[in-house]
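Entry 14. Structure prediction run on the chain below.
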Amino acid sequence: MSTALDSNTQEDDQHDITPPDDTEHPEISRQEAHEGGNMLIAKLLALAVPTSDSQQTIPTHYKDIAHLPVQQQLQWRAACQEELEALQKRQVYELVDLPPNRKAIKNRWVLNQKMDGQKWARLVAKGYSQVEGIDYSEIFSPVICYESIHLMFALAALENWYITSLDVKTAFLYRKLNKEIYMKQPEGFTTQGQGSKVMCLLHALYGLKQATLRWWRELKAFMKTMGFHQASSDARVFIYKHPDR
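Output returned:
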């Protein structure tokens, strides 16, 4: 009986190795799909990401957009315009004249494309051009402690807790700056008739040296209003105690 079972199992395995003729991706066999592993992940990624000549090029710099087909140029510039409108809506900056003896920092466009083909742009400040003592003073902010994360996962597993997560979009834009920072207008989007003006940043922007610290302080203040308090062993962990418990 044992020999018969082993023989049947071997036949089934051999049958699984050969993919059916109508499979969508004959490069992946049934056995590979069943076993999983890094090899399967690599193949799936290769199939998911287009590699044909028709794949649209992601420009490294804003000036590279001018070398793309007209339709793609319009899409990339529309993504940049959408980013600027989002900054204006959040009142991240205002156009002003550059004060005497002050230097405006530079910026750059970071361009990317989502899996669905949607264009994505973000205006990032070149923080390396900031001057210490004028544009910033403090830059330190706590970073994640993996030991605390592991501990919370272990407690959740032991106590059968429910775990969820959230992502704060454009998190750095929520905190006001405590320093006057002036930045040049972004490439390709100089306001008509106000080319000599600069952007006075009212809120933190990605790339600024103090952006992470400003966001940390905003998060800390918000968590306090929600009734959370920091753990004594790890300032990055916030605990909420229900009043009825």
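Residues 2-48 form one domain.
Filed with the rest of this week's runs.
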